[in-house]
UniProtKB/TrEMBL annotation:
Residues of the Protein FecR C-terminal domain: 253-320
FecR protein domain segment(s): 121-213
InterPro entries associated with the record: FecR, FecR_C, Ferrdict_sens_TM
Organism: Dinghuibacter silviterrae
Single GO term (MF): sigma factor antagonist activity
Any one Pfam family match given in the protein's UniProt record, by short name: FecR
Entry protein name: FecR family protein
Coiled coil regions, renumbered to chain: none
Length: 327
């Protein structure tokens, strides 16, 4: 199980649709992580649910969530059962504290009356895309290995972990805001590609049309068509990109200019659902400048091999990567 699969199961827990097997898998995944508190905060970002910044969940909810998942028999959070249907409580099972945290959200945001969850979400597995139209008319394509959340009461503010190409409906009175693991992007009406994954060290956003604002750790930058802003080692950096390359992954077109093999393989995993076993990690630092347009993943791997330094060998459902470091 990876972090995306865990997020999907947490979503099902909150909706009351998780099976006992899924909950057991979630518990085992959390047990194997060194920083469990940080993981639970990632899986259940409670701050996303609040319309007003000054609101907050009662202290210690994250720790109680963790305790209930890892030790399901321990009575860690008092639940008033009238707030939840028996079906939801039974489905939550070992993850009862997640449901309990939802109880606080229900109570604070609905005046104590049962209602549907306050957000919608879409998770896309690797090797797939998902085209989405939000209520405000914004169109977006969500890349594989990505998850998107948004409040039902405000679909001009979304939370993205992964990669997506946005074509935002213009509204001069309501900016469109994308929260991602590394930065916040604000626009009025434009099209752009944003890639920000919690598991990746570098995040970036590239603009095809319009203008956007990026905020990260007290820094602010603006980007216009053909510009890209990247967050590298806590610093925002601006560069130029070919507009034709922005969001081109939707049509299986890839443009690389001195891109590392690590980044290229990451794209192949996301878009085609390939899985690599890195035998010689030093080869990942090799860089390539090339273009692939509507070619099969086998052709891409063959081209990279012909360009030198790297070799690919298929073994069962994985591809072994060997080679020599580039000087």
């Amino acid at each position: 199980m990876d972090i995306l699969e865990a997020k999907v199961i947490v979503q099902k827990v909150l909706e009351g649709n998780a099976t006992h097997g899924e909950i057991a898998g979630l518990r085992a995944f959390i047990e194997g992580q060194p920083d469990k508190d940080a993981l639970v905060a990632t899986l259940f970002p409670a701050g996303e649910f609040w319309d007003q910044e000054e609101k907050a969940l009662p202290g210690g909810v994250e720790q109680r969530v963790l305790k209930a998942i890892l030790h399901p028999q321990a009575p860690v959070v008092p639940l008033r059962r009238r707030w939840f249907s028996g079906r939801r409580l039974a489905a939550a099972g070992a993850a009862a504290a997640l449901v309990a945290a939802c109880f606080f959200l229900y109570k604070a945001n609905t005046g104590g009356h049962p209602t549907a969850m306050l957000y919608d979400s879409v998770a896309v597995g690797e090797g797939h895309f998902e085209n989405i139209v939000l209520g405000d008319g914004t169109h977006l394509t969500l890349n594989g290995g990505s998850i998107l959340r948004w409040l039902k009461t405000n679909n001009r503010e979304v939370y993205l972990d992964g990669e997506a190409f946005f074509d935002v409906a213009r509204d001069s009175l309501r900016p469109f805001v994308i929260h991602s693991p590394s930065f916040t992007t604000t626009v009025l009406g434009t099209s752009f590609d944003i890639r920000s994954r919690s598991r990746e060290a570098i995040s970036r956003v590239a603009v095809a049309t319009g203008k956007i604002r990026i905020d990260a750790g007290g820094q602010r930058s603006f980007a216009t068509p053909g510009q890209q802003v990247s967050l590298i080692r806590d610093s925002l950096r601006k560069s130029t990109v070919d507009i034709a390359s922005i969001g081109s992954w939707k049509e299986h077109r890839f443009y690389y200019d001195r891109a590392s093999l690590k980044d290229i393989l990451g794209d192949l995993e996301t878009v085609y659902g390939l899985h690599f076993n890195i035998i010689d990690p030093d080869v990942l630092s090799c860089t390539y400048s090339t273009t692939f347009k509507n070619v099969s993943p086998d052709d891409i791997l063959e081209t990279l091999t012909l360009m030198g330094r790297v070799h690919f060998t298929k073994k069962d459902d994985r591809i072994e990567v060997t080679g020599k470091a580039c000087r």
